Amino acid sequence: MARPQRILLAQFASVASHGIVAAQAQQPPQTPQTAPRAASVNLRPIPDGPGRRVAELQGLDKVTARTQRFVAPVGEATRFGTLEISVGDCLVNVPEAPPEAVAYLTIIDHKPGQPEEKLFAGWMFASTPSLSALDHGVYDVRVLACTMAQGSAPPRSR
């Protein structure tokens, strides 16, 4: 096997093992400090700095083909369409490891005239969104990054 293929295979195995461990620990966090952690010594909370910890998310409305980037503060709920998205924690890799962002999301659907329905509760990985994805007929949600938001304006698009 060529060297680049071995490296790629090792990276996939590492991410997959994190997802399997994270999937086994899919229980809602009580507070950001006690949220279940993905089993990796490379993952850590966003370093302290000015602003507040947020998960940068992207939502897709499959009916209108509308995509939207938005931020969801850790510990607060954010709306996208009929979905309410709560971020329990948001972790990033240490600087010497390959870039990765992982967020613990709880997603509840509030369809008008119907009882609320919990659609997803678990860790989502930015590098492999299909590893742990929201399964919904109208909406897709994925994690883009974990950052510190300054003020009230959302981060600029790249």
Index terms:
mainly beta, five-stranded antiparallel β-sheet, disordered N terminus, 14% helix, 158 residues
Quaternary structure type = single chain
**End-to-end distance, in Å?**
36 Å
Class derived from helix and strand content = mainly beta
**Biggest beta sheet attributes:** 5 strands, antiparallel
Query: Helix amount, in percent?
Result: 10-25%
Beta fraction of the residues?
A: 35-45%
Using only CA atoms, what is the Rg? 16 Å
Number of DSSP helices? 1
Written overview of the protein:
The chain is mainly beta. The protein is built from one helix and eight strands. Strands 1, 4, 5, 6 and 7 form a five-stranded antiparallel β-sheet that branches. Strands 3-2-8 form a three-stranded antiparallel β-sheet, with no helix packed on it. A hairpin with a 4-residue loop joins strand 2 and strand 3 (66-73). The longest helix is centred in the N-terminal third of the chain and has 22 residues, at 3-24. The chain is globular and about 45 Å long.
